[in-house]
Amino acid sequence: MNHKRPGTGPLTVTVLAFPGVRLLDVTGPIEVFASANEFGGRYRVQIVSEDGAEVITSAGTRLSADLRVDEVREPCDVLVIPGGPEWETLIKDDVLLDAVRLLNEKARCTASVCTGAFLLAAAGLLDGRRAATHWRNSQQLALRFPSVEVQPDAIFVRDGRMMTSAGVSAGIDLSLALVEEHCGAEVARAVAKDMVVFMQRPGGQSQFSVRSRAPHSRQEMLRRVLDAVAENPEANHTLSAMARRAGVSVRHVTRLFYEEVGTTPARYVEQIRLEAAQVLLETGDDPMAVVARRTGFGSPESLRRAFVRQLGVTPGAFRASFRTTGVGRSQAGSA
């Protein structure tokens, strides 16, 4: 719904910056709102820091601030709370948490990016609410703040006037949703196309690299098995075949997977095959039967079932979403 009315002033976006903040958590949303201004939006963005001084981001880049936190007296339409790699230290910073609370009181909508959700939770602003954060940190958010209902697969979550998003670039998704709310779907689509990003991503965070999530095994025999699956997903990777490759019993290889990888052998193989299929769909034009065969699924139907079960989209929808900016589509999403 378009909440902007002719004659009203610009919508104010306040972004909190602090030492160690992740740069893209700050600049991603700012780019969305700045781009929206090129297509009829009216946003005014201001960066604030505790003392008004510049901060050094986790990337080592210096980031200037426009105001001190205590100089923000007018209400803002959107407050952006970014995250940082050292979130465990940040949530113990009482001065920073006080700044989050103070700014939140003046915000019509408060939105966090990535581990910024930890700051909101530590400030008591997510109690009893649903929330999202980077998939790598979802379990920690749930454990440290049991009053928060963590949605581990969500790209972003809105609960009342609080919004939380997944890792880093998901702040762009969240900001696009706000542009659509403020300015309408047409403006949001124009911004998405201009930035060459999705209007709405297919699936959730589960679509992102299983190999980057799997721990490095301490067991050489298991490393051989993991590498063999990753290097040749279409090969025979039944439980008995993996046990023979490792030189141990079926029971022993199953136990190693539970202890070292945190899942079953069959589940791991399917995840690796799914990742391989995603790459082929993103980068090539092979028919589904070829993709299924080359990634070990065997048939297009088995491939389709795995995609729907794990990612919530069909292989065809996944390919379309990752290979078009959505030009000419009438729907808001690019899936």
The fraction of residues in strands falls at 5-15%
List unreliable stretches of 5+ residues: 1-7, 206-215, 324-335
Order of helices and strands: EHEEEEEHHEHEHEEEHHHHHHHHHH
* Number of discrete helical segments: 15
Write the layout of secondary structure elements.
Blueprint: E1 11-16, H1 23-37, E2 43-49, E3 55-56, E4 62-63, E5 67-68, E6 78-81, H2 87-90, H3 94-105, E7 110-112, H4 116-122, E8 130-131, H5 138-144, E9 149-150, E10 156-159, E11 162-165, H6 170-183, H7 185-195, H8 210-213, H9 220-231, H10 239-246, H11 250-261, H12 265-283, H13 288-294, H14 300-311, H15 315-322
Helix pairs in contact: 1-6, 6-7, 9-10, 10-11, 12-14
Description:
With 335 residues, this protein is of the alpha/beta class. It has two domains: 11-197, Class I glutamine amidotransferase (GATase) domain (Rossmann fold, 3-Layer(aba) Sandwich), CATH 3.40.50; 207-322, Arc Repressor Mutant, subunit A (Orthogonal Bundle). Helices cover 45% and strands 11% of the residues. The protein has 15 helices and eleven strands. It has helices at residues 23-37, 87-90, 94-105, 116-122, 138-144, 170-183, 185-195, 210-213, 220-231, 239-246, 250-261, 265-283, 288-294, 300-311, 315-322, and strands at 11-16, 43-49, 55-56, 62-63, 67-68, 78-81, 110-112, 130-131, 149-150, 156-159, 162-165. The strands form three sheets. The protein has a seven-stranded mixed sheet with strand order 5-2-1-6-7-11-10, with helices on both faces. A two-stranded antiparallel sheet has the order 3-4. It has a two-stranded parallel sheet with strand order 8-9. Strand 10 (156-159) and strand 11 form a beta hairpin. The two termini are 21 Å apart.
